[in-house]
Design goal:
The chain has 257 residues and is of the alpha+beta class. It contains 4 helices and 11 strands, in the order ββαβββββαβββααβ. The strands form 2 sheets. Strands 3, 4, 5, 6, 7, 8, 9, 10 and 11 form a 9-stranded mixed β-sheet that branches. It has a two-stranded antiparallel ribbon with strand order 1-2.
Length: 257
């Protein structure tokens, strides 16, 4: 297949960064655009230093604290998210009348690997140990994994075409909207000790019985949105639209002020 190659050169660490663009599309050809952006997306998740797009493969998460029923604390101390690169673009629809916008639906299977802490107060300890005796609080630390299966993400991209320096560009608004829903969310750890290992495994089950109380899906979904905001502002708005589309876009474009 003939491919248009549009190279961006960077002196960052002496590396030349090149993004290879697939064959161009008619702006109204939804299926062509979906495949084109999927191919560009796969490359861009590894980062484009020349365009200030950081590496999101993997994505890094900071500390997040969740409170489960009975005041049990489930804490992600730090972690990484794997799987963005393998997300599949399911559907893409574009509206070329005002307000212009594109609606992307995608499916991802995401894995969060990290360091976790569980804090169990004495009243809740009876649920897991079956006894009232013990310290006022029990703390357990572990390596853990959260598997988010069939994460369906929908993103709305408001945009408009603008003329800038005798070229037409696609400018995406910063206020992207996101919708998301996970098929399943499962936490696993084989080294959580809360008093002892047997109690630790009961705590793991308790965490999975209350996934609605720890919305890691929201955090991961908004990290995906963070990538698309960076991609839109640092890539789409800087690539002449003629590199992406075969269509004469002059009738859609307005002058940039």
């Amino acid at each position: 297949m003939f491919k248009v190659q549009f190279a961006f050169l960077s002196c960052v660490l002496g590396v030349i960064t090149t993004l290879e663009l697939p064959e161009k599309c008619d702006v109204k050809d939804t299926e062509c655009k979906k495949l084109m952006y999927q191919k560009i997306f796969i490359q861009a998740t590894d980062g484009v230093p020349a365009m200030n797009i950081p590496n999101y493969n993997p994505m890094h998460l900071g500390k997040a604290v969740f409170t489960l029923p009975n005041a049990v604390k489930f804490i992600l101390d730090e972690g990484i998210v794997i799987g963005l690169k393998s997300c599949t673009f399911d559907t893409m629809s574009t509206h070329l009348t005002e307000p212009m916008h594109t609606f992307l639906n995608m499916t991802c299977n995401m894995v969060v690997d990290g360091l976790f802490t569980v804090i169990v107060p004495k009243p809740a300890l009876k649920l897991f140990a079956g006894v009232d005796e013990g310290p006022n609080i029990v703390v357990g630390h572990c390596n853990g994994r959260v598997v988010i299966d069939k994460l369906r993400v929908g993103i709305i991209f408001p945009f408009h075409f603008v003329r800038r320096r005798n070229e037409i560009y696609l400018n995406t608004a910063s206020n992207l909207n996101i919708f998301y829903e996970a098929g399943s969310v499962v936490f696993t750890s084989d080294n959580l000790i809360v008093g002892n290992k047997a109690i630790g495994q009961r705590v793991v089950k308790y965490i999975n019985d209350h996934t609605y109380s720890w919305d890691l899906v929201s955090i991961v979904s908004h990290k995906i949105l963070e990538f698309f905001k960076s991609f839109a502002s640092n890539y789409l708005s800087k690539v002449p639209a003629k590199k992406l589309y075969t269509t004469d876009l002059s009738t859609y474009a307005t002058n940039e002020y």
